[in-house]
Known about the structure:
The protein has helices at residues 26-46, 54-74, 90-102, 118-141, 148-171; strands at 12-14, 20-22, 112-113, 177-178. By secondary structure, it is mainly alpha-helical.
Amino acid sequence: MRIYTRGGDRGKTALASGTRRWKHDVRVEAYGSLDEAGAFIGMAVSLLMSDAEADMRETLQELQQFLWDAGADLARVDAGAEAGRVPEEAVAFVEAAIDRFQSELPPQTRFVLRGGTQAAATLHVACTVLRRAERRIVQLMQTETVSDAVLQLVNRASDLLFVAALLVNQRMAVGEISYRRSSDVFVKKTSQ
């Protein structure tokens, strides 16, 4: 397979069906953002090479697989709302990982500034890229049909990356920096 095809030289790219769309088309932007997030996740994984981080690496690499499935679904106009490549268990896997990682963290009460270790900062970048992808998917849903599984996966995946970034910092003994002007926002308020 040749890497270059010259097919995009006029500003269009082919979807999985062969249909050509402008490279700035919202569908192309959506799956392109998933690809970008996956690359940042891969970069984070490359920074988490200790034996103590094996669980994090495995979880993140499985997430990359699911995001690739979601990108493949977005590249298919004909996929519609029915099930595509995103497996049924994908959202449950991500939710379980969030719960597992969050159980190691102290309760979060304030907004934090994104950063910390290189791996955590990279996961924060991936999280924000996924949130952009989610915005593009929602925009796409205004005019075309998109599988519910894709949107649910991307929504949960950004949460997983946020929690993973916090956990990486904690495991590496790097404290979070709270947003100074944040009040306690994640505390359940009781009525009096």
